[in-house]
Structures are given as C-alpha cells and as structure tokens.
Amino acid sequence: MVRDRRPMPRATEETLPNKLLEAGMNGWTPGRRLKQAEAIRSWKPWDQSTGPRTAAGKARVARNADRGGQRAQLRRLAHEINQCLEQQRTTVSEWFS
Predict the structure, then answer these.
(1) Which whole-number Å values give the CA distances from 81 to 63, 77, 91, in the listed order?
(2) Cα separation of 24 and 28, whole Å?
(3) pLDDT, tens only, 59-72
C-alpha cells in the first residue's frame, strides 16, 4: 500500500466547521481541537503503525472480514440449494425416462 506523503493541511478555526463544537455539546472548543490536531500531527501515529509482522498475526488479520459469519451462512445456503436442485433434476429425469 502506497501512502500519500503530501503534508496535511493546517487546521484553523475556519477549517473546523462542526455543529457540535459550535454548540459546545461535546466539551471541545475550537481552540482545544486545534491544539489536539497539532499534537497528533507531531506524534504521527500513522508512521508507527506497522500492522502484523508474524505469520500468525497476518493469518489472524486475514480473517477479519469473516467475523460476521455471513460467508459460512452463504456456503451452507448454496449447498442446500444445490442439493434441492439435484433432487429436482433427478425427479424430472425420472418422469421423462
């Protein structure tokens, strides 16, 4: 994966239009949000993230999308449909033979 290395635009109070911030509903003032944005930019947590390094870690991450169980359900459903179709084919071929 190739990361975009363009610098992030500087956050200013004008570039942070947020209705919740304006209403003060979450406790973050525009100044606090600016300070936090600058702190995160100095920490650069995205440069420290490396992802899984071991084979076991990579195998575990590869299964992330299967967590919902939908793929297994679809496989079972496809198997049941194929069985029904096979029975139907057998029945129809018996009628006409």
Answers:
(1) 26, 6, 15
(2) 7
(3) 988 888 766 778 88
